[in-house]
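Friendly challenge for the regulars: who can give me the structure tokens for this chain first? No prize, just bragging rights.
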Amino acid sequence: MIYKEHMRLQDVAKMLGVSRPTLAKLVEEILDEGIVDIQIRYPGNIRKNLEAACFVRQKYGLRDVIVVSASAGDSAEIFDSIGSAGADYFRDLLREDMVVGITGGKTIYSLVTHVTREPKVAGVRITTTTGGSLYSNTKYHSNTLTQFLAEKLNAAGHFIYAPTYADNERQREILLNNSQIKAALDLCRKANIVLTGIADTEMALRYLPKPIEECMHKTASEDLAGAINTLLITADGSPLAEPMGKLFIGLDYGELKRIGTVIALAGGEPKHKAIKAALLGGYISVLVTDQFTAEYLLL
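First reply, four minutes later:
Bragging rights claimed.
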């Protein structure tokens, strides 16, 4: 009645003249004694995704990998699926008094939209992990998403009121000595979890001040694989630090690696090279991606 006719437990209990807890105990005993076997038959794509996630985790030494299904290697569907899976994973990790750092971008926006409004988890603080690019869509700006997530979790939001990259070293020094910016940076370095997207080459260059972006297009752009936490990286995951490392405002390369849990949410064919670079660089502990990207990472 329960497993073949899909009747509710309380209806079956009523027919048998026993209480629902008694029936639940009987069912447990039946399963324990092997009278009934329950088999899980995974649809082909789910089994394939689970296997791919396991192989990617082993190959790159990750703590966890989630692979979602997608109908094409580059589609809006990927953002939604990755965001939804990432939101579920994040909520399972969230605990009282945690500091959560987030970047901007479409995939992080998707995650935040899928986080459900739930009773307050006491003491949680949400903070940006980089300054905000003035050239990004306001909807996906790191400060905007920090506020959005903080409201959903009834948490406190903290912001870095500075650009991602300063125009020059002198300007960066002045900004870093600002008491509010210094306090925000101190907090994001204490993050227990960082939620970050990964940018392809074209998007990575948009974080830069216009004069430097134009220079990069002409010089080091061939070495650039993409960006994680808006930090520029080469194909093998090495920092592309000159001159940008001296202008960056936020969690730098070494600080990002010292965070306990860095969850990267990224997928789609244009980001394949950047995602692999971020993995090779050792910046990620948990990856949420799509099936086509997982296949690429296993080549």
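The radius of gyration is 23 Å. Strands lie at 64-68, 99-102, 125-128, 156-158, 193-199, 224-228, 231-234, 261-265, 286-290. Your move, everyone else.
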